[in-house]
Amino acid sequence: MALLITDDCINCDVCEPECPNEAISMGPDFYVIDPNKCTECVGHFDEPQCQQVCPVACIPLNPAWRESREELMAKYERLTADKAA
């Protein structure tokens, strides 16, 4: 699954720089996560870094975007290859 940021977000700006895939950006009202780039930090870290630094715990799993660990790893490999190219 990709992660999502709920409307409990206080726009504290700590999650965006922690994302190794640059999946987090400012939305119209609060930060958002691009599910096409979110790997839950699979391939980079043991745990999602945005969840680790979020002071209000507003970054749950996105139930609308279900992915297995294998799918997340494949996405990580694709994103890494795209960056290297």
From TrEMBL:
GO terms for cellular component: cytoplasm. Keywords: 4Fe-4S, Electron transport, Iron, Iron-sulfur, Metal-binding, Repeat, Transport. Residues 1-29, 31-64 form the 4Fe-4S ferredoxin-type domain. Signal peptide: none annotated. It comes from the Bacteria. One of its GO terms (molecular function) is 4 iron, 4 sulfur cluster binding. PANTHER family: PHOTOSYSTEM I IRON-SULFUR CENTER (PTHR24960:SF79), PHOTOSYSTEM I IRON-SULFUR CENTER-RELATED (PTHR24960). This is YfhL family 4Fe-4S dicluster ferredoxin. It comes from Massilia polaris.
